[in-house]
Amino acid sequence: MPKDAPDLGLHDPLAESFPATTEGRALFWIAVLFSVFQIATAAHLLDLSSQIVRAFHVGFLTLLGFPLLVALKRKGVPFKAVAWALALSGVIVALYQWWEYTPLILRAGDPLPRDIFLGIVALITVFAAAWLLMGPALPIIAGCFLAYCFWGEYLPSPLNHRGYDFSQVIDHMAYGTEGIYGIPTYVSSSYIFLFILFGSFLERAGMIRLFTDVSLGLVGHKQGGAAKVAVVSSGLMGTISGSGVANVVTTGQFTIPLMKSFGYRPAFAGGVESTASMGGQLMPPVMGAVAFIMAETLGVEYVEVVKAALIPAILYFASAFWMVHLEAGRHGLKGMAKADLPSPIKALKENWYLILPLGVLVYLLFSGFTPLFAGTIGLALTVMLILGGSIALGLPNGVIRIIFWIGLGAIAAAFFEFGIMPVAVAIAALIGWNAISKGGRETLALCRDSLAEGAKTALPVGIACALVGIIIGTMTLTGAANTFGQFIVHVGEGSLFLSLILTMITCIILGMGIPTIPNYIITSSIAGPALLELGVPLIVSHMFVFYFGILADLTPPVALACFAAAPIAKENGLKISMEAIKVAAAGFVIPFMAVYTPTLMLQGGGPLAEAFGFWPGVAYIVVKTVIAIGLWGAAVIGWLGYPINWPLRILAATAAVTLIAALPLTDEAGFAMAAIFAGLVWRTRTARRA
User: Fold this and answer.
1) Cβ(466)–Cβ(184) under 8 Å?
2) Is 294 exposed, middle or buried (0-12, 13-18, 19+ CB in 10 A)?
3) Contact partners, residue 117, CB within 8 Å, separation at least 6
4) How far apart are CA 363 and CA 268, in angstroms?
């Protein structure tokens, strides 16, 4: 590892598995129990009020998070004692919320001394867990907001507020649905955890291998095939995995060495993988779990968020693919031998059943079912396929296997008519069948490990959601969002572009060390209403801050995804970051284009849709964006079948920027410069051939 590349554990302290000790096994089973609890509440096998589910969710996060992190860092007995004390404190808070559920509702706004004490304990455990899991950035920001609740009344106008009593602040933050148990924790305890488990089961069932084989077979033999495999496989992984950094350390273990072996520079290989992996958060249906929070916040159906994200996500990956193609051409990097590559058709024939749960999930989401319903069905179907596949291997080939699969499919379909019970009974029967066969016991162990791994993966996301609830709670209590929002509106009255730049900078600064979910929640709460007042459609403004929250993980000096790729690429994380910015260039321009032309996100409004109609407007903006991406790639890489000189590169960059601007006459000027550029390139190429 380069000496100036940080240890991966700094950014992903839970990268290792559970320790092979008695304590490690205990934590492993706590993780399994956590996942079982979340599945039981999601499937309504265990009916509890939403507030209690949220409290137990945070309690499990602290119970698992503190001792696991200390065990993985191999700390001594004093640290372990403190970790278990904090873990048990979190459990006591959760049990108190359950035991005192009705009395707490009845005395809301008039807390008892013990309510205040346990509220303080809840805040301390959440802050400490976030600090240990994600570093100091998010806890410091949340702490500043909490301090504003206590002492904001002493600030000069217009930053001050009317003042709030200590007990009122604690009651607001630690109880009810405005603070740590607010909407982010609700979404984490229902949608996000379920989809993380869904991805964990699919990965262990062989989905990564399927995506890799399909990607290798489709593009591995093309120019720069190794890097194109990274783009395609990471894009596919994004459909089931919501974590960009997790994508880097899973698919990157294969793709980065592969790119280096075919001649790509280590920094560029790391940059490609980082860009593609972070883009996975833009790719429906999972979208880094932000899609669920966005739908809940905006009060719209999930499909509306997916609709807005679809075209920009495709353009993002198309841009990365184009950059990779040009870089490969500039350095003469050929593809792999086709004979050595797996057949995508064969891979799909052998593992087609793995796509079924994903297909059903997408169908349900687009049919208007809630993410909770769709996620429960998708997870149940995945478990049935894994368990049923193990049993089917022991059955005689032919008619009996076909009857078995038809019966299993009928039981799965019964969910829509009779609810979860037939599926739960079928899964219990499959577990029993697998338990009495050798291969089946191995399959059960795989499912058990998936439950534990899913719970471990959910730790940083869940804790971040709980802590960011304090920021949201501060805004609802004090109205702090209005102050910053009014400033953005004031700037935007003179120039919408300057307001967008200000919002972008805010997102990127907040993204330095803060995961995408809390970054999105904070910035959308502040900037979303302000941009709406300036005429930007609400969903477009939320997608705008979402994009730049993701790109913050590629921009220096923090660049979490790039530093996660650094030890794999054996290169400086900052060098990888600079390459990632080049590859992800389209990601920086697409949000601006969507603000000026909402049809890019399939939203109504904008001069194009009004002048030519909605679908012609969509076609026009997509073509324009594709041309802008093509020009930008040629300008940045300096290659278009042959090396292009600086005057041509400057012309291409100017044309691309002009096409992005969406101001009067800029499209005409941009197309004219693009035509001139194309003519000069064609003439030069013809002369070179002659």
Assistant:
1) yes
2) buried
3) none
4) 37
- Secondary structure class of 639 (helix, strand, coil): strand
Model-level pTM?
A: 0.76
Q: Which two tokens stand for residue 544?
A: 């705008």
- In whole angstroms, give the CA distance from residue 241 to residue 219: 22
Long-range contacts, 427-433 (Cβ 8 Å, 24+) = 427/380, 427/383, 427/384, 427/387, 430/384, 430/387, 430/388, 430/391, 431/387, 433/387, 433/391
Longest CA pairwise span in the chain (Å): 89
Query: 186: which 2 tokens?
Result: 């609700």
Rg (CA), the chain: 26
> What is the identity of the amino acid at 45?
L
| pLDDT tens-digit readout, 342-370 | 888 888 888 888 888 888 887 887 777 77
DSSP of 197-224: HHHHHHHHHTHHHHHHHHHHHHHTTSTT
| Distance from C-alpha of 34 to C-alpha of 471, rounded to nearest angstrom | 26
Assign 3-class secondary structure to 55-104: HHHHHHHHHHHHHHHHHHCCCCHHHHHHHHHHHHHHHHHHHHHHHCHHHH
Give residue-wise pLDDT tens across range 164-198. Answer: 999 999 999 998 788 899 888 888 888 778 888 88
**Residue 19 is encoded by which pair of tokens?**
């320790």
Helices (H), 75-192: 77-99, 101-106, 113-134, 137-151, 166-174, 183-187
Is the pLDDT at 684 greater than 70? The verdict is yes
Place of tokens 């783009």: 231
| Degrees, nearest 5: CA angle 498-503-507 | 145
